[in-house]
Fold:
Amino acid sequence: MKSTIQRARWGVLPVALAAAAACLPAAAQTQSLAETVVVATRTEQPLTDVVADVSIIDRERIEASGAAGLADVLAQLPGIEIARNGGVGGTTSVFIRGAETRFVAVFIDGVRVDSQSTGGAAWNALPLAHIDRIEVVRGPLASVYGSDALGGVVQIFTRAGEQGWQPSIDVGAGSHGTRRLGASVRGAQGPWSLALGVQRELSDGFNVQPAANPDRDGHRARSAHMRLGWTPAAGHTLSLSALDSRMEAQYDGYMSTADDWATQDVRTVGVTWDARWSDVYTSRVALGRGTDRYSTRPSPYQTNTEVSTYLWQHQWLQGPHRVQLGLERREDRLLNASTTPNRTQRSQDAVALGYGWAERGHALQVNVRHDDDSEFGGQTTASVGAAWSPGPGWRLRANAGTAFRAPTLFQRFSIYGVPSLQPETSRNIELGAQWRTGVHHVGATWYRNRVRDLIQYVPGPGPCVNGSGTWAGCYDNVGWATLRGWTLEGGTQMAGVRLTGSLDLADPRNDLTGKRLARRAARHATLRAETTAAPVRWGVEWRLVGQRWDDAANTKRLGGYGLVNVSLRGALARDWQWLARVDNLGGQAYETARGYATGGRSVFVGVQWTPAPSN
Structure:
């Protein structure tokens, strides 16, 4: 009976998407065509000139979603899945087109965030409250960003000061004893701009492992951000940004009856000088440092990563032509008791070249980059993409490229590590088509990303220090995988209701075993409806995720699930707004990681005071 219901659920969404497509000869994205993006080439360019597969999430959409965490917002986009160990504070994975979390390069105001222990960003510790805009590229982009960008890139921009001063206060409460309080102020005066924000959240939580320790696992989170800008002369801007975020979350350790806590600290600081020297030449100098610190108690464990980057970037524009040159240095440092020595480090020096051309709906983008690692030598990556418009409303595109991920310092120098590990590499090809008219759109993308030299933990005797112990095992370059699939998306507006939806048909597999990669579904989809029925703006999101496997051997099944989430927003009085969100309206029990429960039906209600800007 359950499988019949599941098949029925899966039958509805494609029909709904097809019906939307039939209403429109369309292809578009919800954002305006006049928008510019940074993520595709690392410099600002019109969205219409972008060849890569890009999505944008602005502040309005973040607030309208009412989502609890950053990963939940990203999961609304095509091609993205998430997995989480319990509640919002638990360890969270974000898969772009089936690629591992460590294969997604993440930047906050241009500052790279990464862990040299597990690899990848700490998604659970990145706060939504301070984010103004998110730009996402699906597909490899190492030819622009270097190591890590094997599956995609996420650029996060915090809120900046705008003309006039505007304070804001947020307060809210919800299920599982959740309480939230935040405040911010943004403004600009003359050549100066400033944005400051703080937030505090507490939650009593729920029992994330019902079969283990029968306690409630809550979290405590606090964050602060600052963004300062100065324009000393026309065309020149200096900016300083900083983010400090801490997530303390209870968890149930293996065979533990103690009150276990994990603390995740993420901090970034960056300084940028953007200069327009003439109508054809601009440059950017950027210095950044991102730190990721993870610790547990009462069972003691601590690991601390520092990633420092230095970028000098140049761009020349001549009519429809764009030429870019970038010089970048990256320094990674890891402090971990299980590495030898305890403090390990490495550096990468890179030179990147790019050429772009865009004219009359057609575009070409070519990039090549060489990274020289202080440990394992050089790695060259390249990409080429083209887009063209065969007729009104149509846009066809094709991309091909190579990428790599350098092994983490933990994978090389811990007791499980092997210093001779080589980078994980990939070759990607993708084809896409869109058809757009007015507020309507439909689109389709096919991709295939072949990954070689996957680094995996191999149980049993091996060359590492831990290779002869009771729990013997080492890291090794033993994996091959192919990430292939289709992404279909569409949207329309009827009777004042905005409808958008996407359907992903994916086949991420281990080429050596033929097994599907763990925690990734063959099918997942979203359908969202939004409208304003005065005085309330409401949105309904339907998310469907198919069956997954929790292990590489495909023996531990995670059942498919369907969720309905509802968000509401309206005005209380002048300068006052209220918001409400209901997650998992049907109260469905499901897991994204085996043995870890999710929160069931949950409700959050908040109030926001935001007066009009004053000069």
User: Anything to note?
Assistant: The helical segments are 2-22, 59-65, 70-74, 142-145, 409-413. The two ends are 63 Å apart (CA to CA). Confidence is low (pLDDT under 50) at residues 1-33. The chain is about 5% helix and 60% strand.
